[in-house]
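Backbone-to-sequence.
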């Protein structure tokens, strides 16, 4: 995939952030995640299957079942989540290990794409789910009545 975060990647990150929150030791059910994060449940079910397959999320079926993170959120990177859902992250097709570019090795722009690719992968790899948890921030603002940061900034500027 050329780098563009689709709804699948965006929703997947939101769901993983939800799972990273404290749920008093219980598993989160799909309808709870969908409702709390305002995500479409059928699409979320597909996303969760991919995250389970990638080993980032664990699931249990039946009574008392649901979803939880398979690892500590401080060890799960944004890059891992996105690649589990989207495939290899690439800023351009010449940087995608799956695609081929007919100009590879003979392109005056390749050095720029290589640098951009490295920067993007480094940022997404360094950004951990545990570091992104923020009480009162999107996508959880509605859960505790706090405003999203954008709205808070507007109300203090008035």
């Amino acid at each position: 995939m050329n780098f563009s975060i689709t709804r699948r990647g965006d929703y997947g990150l939101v769901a993983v952030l939800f799972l990273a929150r404290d749920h008093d030791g219980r598993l989160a059910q799909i309808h709870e995640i969908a409702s709390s994060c305002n995500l479409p449940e059928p699409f979320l079910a597909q996303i969760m299957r991919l995250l389970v397959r990638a080993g980032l999320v664990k699931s249990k079926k039946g009574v008392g079942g649901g979803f939880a993170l398979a690892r500590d959120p401080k060890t799960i990177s944004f890059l891992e989540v996105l690649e589990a859902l989207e495939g290899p992250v690439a800023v351009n097709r010449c940087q995608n290990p799956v695609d081929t570019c007919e100009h590879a090795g003979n392109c005056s722009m390749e050095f720029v794409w290589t640098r951009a690719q490295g920067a993007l992968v480094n940022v997404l790899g360094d950004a951990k789910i545990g570091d992104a948890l923020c009480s009162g921030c999107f996508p959880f603002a509605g859960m505790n009545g706090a405003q999203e940061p954008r709205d808070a900034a507007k109300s203090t500027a008035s």
